[in-house]
Design brief:
The protein is of the alpha/beta class and about 260 residues long. It has helices at about 5-20, 40-45, 75, 95-105, 110-120, 125-130, 140-145, 150-160, 190-195, 225-235, and strands at about 85-90, 130-135, 170, 175, 200, 215-220, 240-250. The chain has ten helices and seven strands.
Length: about 260
């Protein structure tokens, strides 16, 4: 085994050689950047990160600060089953160029940076969570894609949490019991019907969730139908609270 100082020197030298041959590229535009998994200055300014002021429940951005604890009209009209949701990015044309290659194009390297953004956006949720669970894929989808993007993000989020945290990653806490197809293009009501009774708790976790706070992790929050279906299952299984953390969230235009 190399001495600590020499080992670090070898690692740094190897990294310099690798960067010279394959320089790190911006996740947003493929321009050369200083470190792997980073955004260039132009892309960083172009991404819309979700930040206060926003709805205390679902984190939908507000145009102006309405005060602590304020809820958006959608949450007042139809309170979601989860307690709170947070997201790192607004899902728009810019972030779509990041999310879609990660989700459908085998760009699993994107998970590291995205998981870090999510951990910062969901710090208050992580501080209270006991279990972190990804939204599951049906086995057919997993076979075709070869990875669950939500599970990759969940692993990074747990890793980025504070040292000594009581967090536990529960990668198979939930199972998708039936094929639901794609939700793309479906109205909110149709999405809810499509995922109704589609999820179940893995038997080996059944005794673990009683009284626990579960943090659900997914890539994009659209209407919330999927995470609400998952939350309902967890609540029926005895979870005390269910929170949601996603990489991005769709923001409906203000009327």
């Amino acid at each position: 085994m190399l001495p600590t100082g020499l080992g670090a020197l070898c690692v740094n030298a190897g990294r310099m050689v690798l960067d010279a041959v394959l320089p790190p590229l911006c996740l947003g535009c493929n321009e050369i950047v200083e470190t792997p998994g980073a955004l260039c200055a132009a892309c960083w300014r172009g991404f819309s990160f979700v930040a206060p002021p926003h709805c205390a429940r679902c984190a939908a951005p507000f145009v102006e600060d309405l005060g602590a604890g304020m809820l958006c009209g959608a949450c007042l009209a139809r309170p979601p089953r989860y307690r709170r949701a947070r997201a790192a990015l607004v899902y728009d044309a810019r972030s779509r160029r990041l999310v879609l290659p990660f989700k459908h194009g085998d760009r699993t390297d994107i998970a590291r940076a995205c998981g870090g953004w999510m951990a910062r956006a969901g710090a208050e949720l992580l501080a209270e969570a006991d279990l972190v669970a990804p939204v599951p894929l049906h086995w057919r989808r997993l076979f075709m894609r070869r990875y669950n993007q939500a599970q990759l993000l969940a692993r990074i989020v747990v890793r980025e949490a504070s040292p000594g945290s009581r967090l536990r990653l529960a990668p198979d806490l939930l199972r998708r019991r039936r094929w639901t197809g794609s939700q793309t293009g479906l109205r909110a009501e149709d999405r809810r019907g499509n995922v109704r009774q589609a999820f179940g708790i893995h038997p080996r976790w059944a005794a673990e969730i009683e009284g626990k706070t579960v943090l659900l992790v997914d890539d994009v929050l659209t209407t919330g139908a999927t995470v609400e279906a998952c939350a309902q299952v967890l609540q029926r299984g005895g979870a005390r609270h269910v929170d949601v953390l996603t990489l991005a969230r769709v923001v409906r235009p203000a009327l």
